[in-house]
Specification:
InterPro entries: RlpA-like_DPBB (IPR009009), RlpA-like_sf (IPR036908). It comes from Acetomicrobium mobile (strain ATCC BAA-54 / DSM 13181 / JCM 12221 / NGA). It holds the Pfam family DPBB_1. With about 240 residues, the protein is of the alpha+beta class. It folds into two domains: about 130 residues, no CATH class; about 90 residues, RlpA-like domain (Barwin-like endoglucanases). About 30% of the residues lie in helices and about 30% in strands. The strands form three sheets. It has a six-stranded mixed barrel. The protein starts with a helix and ends with a strand.
Length: about 240
């Protein structure tokens, strides 16, 4: 009983210190900070929730906070995030495919009543939205209506894409002929108001359409349809 009480006090002290430090950081710059919502600990960028974990896993968001502060401090217009799939069912959001930012285990996904892959996609979308909402990124054009399809599975996983990267259907990527490679675009489903931000890494068969990864389609809830209409908004396009 004493050990349990001691752990509770330790967690409370850790959370209090984290909240104090994050509030000081947030007062001077729009970087991530941590919020105690009662049942869980949330990692925010401004008003946007990036991720949330049970209180006993506060070290996860604390580690993510430190890493995201460094990345956001670069003030770039394009950020290279990847989702890595591990053999134990865990998915990891990494930066430039080198530095691990957030690890989503099956237990953490179960806490959110989700799957590790879907939760990784949701949290990476939150990170992208925070980037493009925090910094003044020029919008190339108003959202366009496009035909959307999706692809994935063993036939496609491991194939080389037009930008030189390797395709996996658990990445947030898309094929499109109408924007430069490595552009970042927001795809929105007008039927359910869901949206996802993807990197254009490949080309597809026709103009005026976007062929997204299965994970992106899952997040938009269009997987069962096969073909649907979505709105596409360019958030970043390379100058050359």
């Amino acid at each position: 009983m004493r050990k349990a009480n001691g752990r509770s006090i330790l967690f409370a002290v850790m959370i209090a210190i984290v909240l104090l430090l994050s509030k000081k950081a947030n007062a001077s710059r729009p970087y991530p900070w941590i919020h105690d919502s009662g049942a869980k600990i949330e990692l925010h960028v401004g008003e946007r929730v990036i991720a949330s974990v049970p209180k006993e896993k506060v070290d996860i968001v604390l580690s993510c906070l430190n890493k995201l502060e460094k990345i956001f401090g670069q003030q770039r217009k394009s950020y290279d995030y990847y989702i890595k799939k591990c053999d134990n069912g865990t998915f990891v959001i990494s930066y430039r495919n080198r530095e691990d930012i957030l690890t989503i285990t099956p237990d953490l996904a179960k806490f959110h009543r989700s799957t590790p892959m879907i939760l990784a996609g949701l949290w990476l979308t939150n990170i992208y939205e925070a980037h493009y909402g925090t910094w003044d990124v020029d919008k190339e054009c108003a959202p366009d209506d496009v035909i959307a399809t999706w692809y994935g599975g063993p036939r496609w996983n491991g194939n080389r894409m037009a930008n030189g990267e390797t395709f996996y259907d658990w990445q947030l990527t898309a094929a499109c002929n109408d924007v430069p490679l490595n552009s970042m675009v927001r795809l929105s489903n007008p039927g359910n108001k869901k949206s996802v931000i993807v990197k254009v890494t490949d080309r597809c068969g026709k103009d005026g359409m976007v062929d997204m990864s299965k994970l992106a389609a899952d997040l938009l809830d269009v997987t069962r349809r096969g073909i649907s209409k979505v709105k596409m908004e360019i958030l970043y396009a390379p100058s050359h």
